[in-house]
Amino acid sequence: MATITTPLDKDLEAFIDRELKEGRAESKAHVVRSALRLLREERALAEIREAEEEIRAGRLIRGDLREILKKFPD
Predict the structure, then answer these.
(1) For every one of its 74 residues, what pLDDT tens digit does the chain have, with 9 covering 90 and above?
(2) Spatial distance between the Cα atoms of 42 and 34, rounded to a whole number of angstroms
(3) Angle at Cα 61 formed by Cα 56 and Cα 62, nearest 5°?
(4) SS (H, E, C) 22-60
């Protein structure tokens, strides 16, 4: 597992501290990993919504199904 160091503004730091204090996360890393997973999911859902709009508009989605599926985590 890689380690990344990044500066956070005071609001984000306070949010992480509240998550820990209120027992919703076991570590700062857990909060960040959870946030990144949600961002990844949000992006995947946005891609699905875009694809649905393409279909509704009559535009076809072309490509290798294996490559398209790689965009979605197991």
Answers:
(1) 899 999 999 999 999 999 999 999 999 999 999 999 999 999 999 999 998 998 889 877 677 888 888 877 76
(2) 12
(3) 160
(4) CCCCCCHHHHHHHHHHHHHHHHHHHHHHHHHHHHHCCCC
Alpha carbon distance 53, 56 (integer Å): 5
Measured distance CA(50)–CA(55) in Å, rounded: 9
Sequence spans of domains, the chain: 11-16+26-69
Query: Residues 24, 3, 44, 46: is their CA dihedral positive or negative?
Result: positive
Here the tokens at position 74 are: 């197991």
Q: Which residue has the tokens 């500066």?
A: 7
pTM of the model: 0.70
Separation CA 26–CA 30 (nearest Å): 6
